[in-house]
Amino acid sequence: MKILITTELYSPVINGVVTSIVNLKKELQKSGHEVRVLTLSNEIKSYVTNEVTYIGSLGVGKIYPGARVTILKNCKYLKELMEWCPDIIHSQCEFSTFRLAKHLAKTLRIPIIHTYHTVYEDYTHYFSPNQKWGKAAVAFFSKKVLKHATNVIAPTEKVSTLLQGYGVKQPIKVIPTGIDLSSYKPSNSIQVRNNLRNQLNIPVEDHLLIFVGRLAKEKKLEEVLSNFSRVTLENISLLIVGDGPHRQYLEEYARKLNIEDKVIFTGMVPPQELPPYYQSADIFVSASNSETQGLTYIEALASGLPALCRKDPCLTNVVENGSNGWLFETFDEFERYLEKMLLDQNEYKHLSFHAIKKAYDYYSSTVFAKNLEHVYDDAIVLYQQNENRDCLNQ
After folding, report:
1. 4: buried, middle or exposed (CB in 10 Å: 19+, 13-18, 0-12)?
2. Which domains does the chain have, with CATH numbers?
3. Which end of the chain, N or C, is more open, meaning fewer C-beta atoms within 10 Å of its C-beta?
4. Could you tell me which of 233, 254, 238 has the C-alpha nearest to residue 203?
5. Contact 118, 130 (CB under 8 A)
6. Burial profile 172-190: b = 16 or more Cβ within 10 angstroms, e = fewer
7. pTM
8. What are the tens digits of pLDDT across the range 353-380?
């Protein structure tokens, strides 16, 4: 099968969507499929490299940090993709590249599968002064875009329910995003665990909590910092891995809470360098409720880290109370679960074992690609049936 993946962002950009696309492309190619990617260039110039077509674009950061758009629709690079004749398009974003996907799909008479990665309701502060109006705009926009897809992929039940609430009529399939977990196997080496701690001046005897992700307002890291500042356990540190527009505020907030000597901000870390960070830690923490799935949650679980996260529908079937971690709603729950995990070695071993098992059983990139292959086959059949019905009705 020839599969074209379209996305606003691609490597070398680092985020969860890009990571999922890179892993999907690799797994599909391992299964014998031909895969190409269509994305936006970070400059006006268009070009092709390593089966990736970069279309020239303009920055529109005032709409959303890092956002870019293109007005190109007819250029030699798109014509080359048409001549390649893909069987299906798998769209990953709803903006400029979705417009290009629609154009290609209409011309080639092929279906579009779309993965809805982002819960835009949690980002309305970027474009709307009124939250209610912002959510209404998101619902209208999402329904309008997704009517052009033959099938829709939702990473979690939370996203599926949200889309149904928007009035989306297309078939929605819940498929958790897959990750190449081979690098995240937990290490039993004390040296591996302590090397990074020594580099970051973290006491080797400390219990270490870790958050990995973009430092943005919607991640609600203030709650993690506040809870951390109130726990009574001794010998405990917090490692925050990542960067983003909210970093300076969070560093100042940590100083205000008088915990700056126990909270370490690393800045951006390339994905290939992340495994030792997880392996140096004991528990993954998060208070975000803006995730569609949260790939770093899966990376942490695969590394053997139990999760301690704010309860949210996005974590249904990901973090399970008493199995691979705990979900909290109050500070009292946060502290109680934290003490339970860190002070009871049998409890910790139980949670760590099931964290690894859950990650590999449900969230590997191999399982992800196999699930999508079935959706591609079904979408092609459904599209052809709809095309035939339309012809008969003319």
Report:
1. buried
2. 2-179+364-393 (3.40.50.2000), 182-362 (3.40.50.2000)
3. C
4. 238
5. no
6. bbbbbbbbbbebbebbeee
7. 0.75
8. 999 999 999 999 999 999 999 999 999 9
